[in-house]
Amino acid sequence: MHRDVRFLAGLALLALLCGCATTAVQPWERGRLARWDMRWDPDPLQSAMGNHTHFSKEGSSGEIGAAGGGCGCN
Amino acid sequence: MRKPWFQVVAFQLLLTASASAIGIDITGNPAPQFDLPVFGAEQRHIALTSLRGKVVMLDFWASWCGPCRQSFPLYEQLRSELPAQDFTLLAINLDEVSAGPAAFLEEHPVSYTSLADPEGDVAKAFGLIGMPSAFLIDRDGIVRKRHTGFKPADIESLRSEIRDLITEPHNAP
Which of A9, A70, B59, B159 has the CA that lies 20 to 30 A from B38? Predict the structure, then answer.
């Protein structure tokens, strides 16, 4: 009984691993991933403006991509 | 003594290996055969066998692929430079929906034919590993070169490789 459970658990784990291998996105299937709204930062200008507003309101700087720890002193 | 877990592991590994087999380099082997509809005129089909005796360049592209925008005008120029009786350029579109490529072709008009392979079956048979991909097939139907990706400087090597294939002796069709 105990052995059967271990066997089934191992089988399920291997099936999961195999599932990872079979779901690879092929080069020709990247149409949706290539959409502009799928980018990490779809609109750099908009995000720069958002960051500027954020820094101003929070009295901090350097929160994203610059030196400084948010002390507001640089 | 036979161990069932060993058989299970072997089976899983086989499945994993078959999944990762996509992307095999088929250079040097006979080109996988296909018969695909012409994009925008689906009642017309073109089979690769009908082009035997000519050097064929297959260009796999998609409307969302950035380098394809650069490649189209340069491929068009390349096609116009080479004799039509010896060389055919065929594009194979891999978009899953047809709206994108229609707009792309309006923006980048070319005189060569695009075929439609929305399921990617032919792309899989050719073992694509990137977009765009170009394959050069000799007059005997053998895949001789594979180019993955595109930058404008690639056109020079493509031109010389195609010229070499055109002048190469071959078996009569």
Answer: B159
Name, in order, each residue with C-beta under 8 angstroms of B128's C-beta and a sequence gap of 6 or more: A26, A27, A28, B23, B60, B148
Chain A nearest-CA distance from B83, in A, is 31
Residue of B nearest to A26 (CA): B129
- CB contact (8 A) between residue B120 and residue A26: yes
| pLDDT reported for residue B19 | 47
**Average pLDDT in the B124-144 region?**
96
Q: What is the pLDDT of residue B13?
A: 54
Pairing type for strands B55-61 and B87-93 reads: parallel
Whole-angstrom distance, CA of residue B94 vs CA of residue B63: 8
- Write the DSSP symbol of residue B131: S
Q: pTM of this prediction?
A: 0.75
Element (H, E) at A49: helix A44-58
Over residues B44-90, the pLDDT tens digits come to: 999 999 999 999 999 999 999 999 999 999 999 999 999 999 999 99
End-to-end CA distance of chain B: 57
